[in-house]
Amino acid sequence: MSNVLHIPSYLSAEHLGPWETFLVQIDRVEPHLAAELRPLVPILTRPMRALIVNVPIRLDNGEMAHFEGYRVQHNLSRGPGKGGIRFHPRVTLSEVMALSAWMTVKNAVVNVPFGGAKGGVRVDPKNLSPAELERLTRRYTSEIHILLGQDKDIPAPDINTNEQVMAWVMDTYSMNEGRTAMGVVTGKPVGLGGSLGRKDATGRGVFVSTVEAARRLGLEIAGAKVAIQGFGNVGDAAARCFADAGARVVALQDDSGSIANPGGFDVRAVKAWRLEHGALTGAPGAESISADDFWATDADILVAAALENQITAANARQIRARLITEGANGPTTPEADLILQDRGITVIPDVLANSGGVTVSYFEWVQDISAFFWSEEEINARLERIMREAFTAVWEAARQKGISLRTAAFVLGCERVLMAHKLRGLYP
């Protein structure tokens, strides 16, 4: 029976959202798992723990506002929960559940000793003052405090959160505990135990995994045309890596609009323009294009580094790239995935491609616990080695079993999680 039919009572069967995408992925991977592990698959189809909290704060005008917050721990068989916190007006419990599940698989794919977790607050931080944002962060942290700890659950930045937000999370947790606990979050400022190289780690991992795939496909990175959806931390870092390697970034898209330049952008100049003007449109050398035209860009490589469900059945046939790298979590719907497979387009799945962030988060956690910090060169070298090893393992599994990279990554990750569960046994 399909895992999609096993729906928890607190979700609507008619509106499963991103959680349905994860369940479909589990359905597709289950036949390829080791026979001894298949009976354990239901452990993956239910989150271990889901906390919904009210987050009341006092606004600057004296009024009280209430926001809905979540923290979900999907699976802790391989270690403490690890996953970011996003502030977004449309975040839902289903979304956070799916994100926590993808973190479970992602951490297992790169073989770091973490389980999967994720958090979120339904809020548009653009509508809050800095003081209101701080109060929101601290109140949310206090509400989910019972789940947190450097050996229990370790948050990190995600959409609309950054190192300052992580500093507030760490300080709030530390004040409530009565001790400084740097290891309770990652993605902190370097001055508070953050790791060098963490900010660009996800984008760098996207670049490294793309290089590995391109090499196997006979695609030269130097001179390759790259389109990038999403121009936040991940898209920006990836764009700089591609540009420095001689690739041409020919199209960019974020929530402010879509731009193209067949000759390639000066990505650093575009970033400076975006920061100054709040939009991509009007950037040096930029031609404005429609959101639909972005997907039809003449590019060799497409990096999807925005939100979930961006590549759909409606636009998958327009894509001209030979290689798609998922810098975001869940950017491709299951229907689109099948279309891309039929068209012979290689997709590097999110659980592999964007795992650079959690890998360096692991490094940060280790450094905090040991109180011994590494150089950025050492961190980048360790990151690239782990990403290459993980990519090779997934690529070989896909080749040997005749399956997609996504299915191969899920096979590798899910088998590691389920084996850990089997070895630990069922309590009581």
Notable traits:
428 residues, alpha/beta, Rossmann fold, 17% strand
What's the topology here?
Elements: H1 18-29, E1 49-58, E2 64-75, E3 81-88, H2 93-109, E4 115-122, H3 130-143, E5 153-157, H4 163-177, H5 201-217, E6 225-229, H6 233-244, E7 248-254, E8 257-260, H7 267-277, E9 287-289, H8 291-295, E10 301-304, E11 323-326, H9 334-342, E12 346-348, H10 350-353, H11 356-370, H12 376-401, H13 405-424
Parallel strand pairs: 3-4, 3-5, 6-7, 6-10, 10-11, 11-12
Antiparallel strand pairs: 1-2, 2-4, 7-8, 8-9
Helix pairs in contact: 1-2, 1-13, 2-13, 3-4, 5-6, 5-11, 5-12, 11-12, 12-13
Notes on the structure:
The chain is α/β, with parallel strands linked by helices and 428 residues long. It has two domains: 176 residues, Rossmann fold, CATH 3.40.50.10860; 144 residues, Rossmann fold. A seven-stranded mixed β-sheet has the order 9-8-7-6-10-11-12, sandwiched between helices. It is globular. The chain starts with 17 loop residues before the first helix and ends with a helix. The mean pLDDT is 94.
